[in-house]
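F.,

This is the one I mentioned.
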């Protein structure tokens, strides 16, 4: 397999194929980039929370908490 998953995901993002980009990042376990797609492009913090629970990585939780704070969800951010 002679391709770079993050490059393909970035091409998907540039073409507004956000679900596809999320799937690519998730499949190749580039989880911080995957949650960024959920937060910044798909704009679904509930899905982002579910994703953070599944992969349970500190960097993913941190990105989610920052997004929650930006949305005024302080209690949720503290819990994250």
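My design for it:
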């Amino acid at each position: 397999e002679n391709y770079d998953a993050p490059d393909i995901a970035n091409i998907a993002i540039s073409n507004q194929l956000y679900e596809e980009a999320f799937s690519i990042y998730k499949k190749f376990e580039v989880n911080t980039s995957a949650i960024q797609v959920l937060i910044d492009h798909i704009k679904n913090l509930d899905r982002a929370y579910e994703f953070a629970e599944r992969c349970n990585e500190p960097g993913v939780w941190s990105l989610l908490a920052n997004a929650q704070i930006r949305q005024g969800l302080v209690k949720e951010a503290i819990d994250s």
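The chain has a mean pLDDT of 92.

Talk soon.
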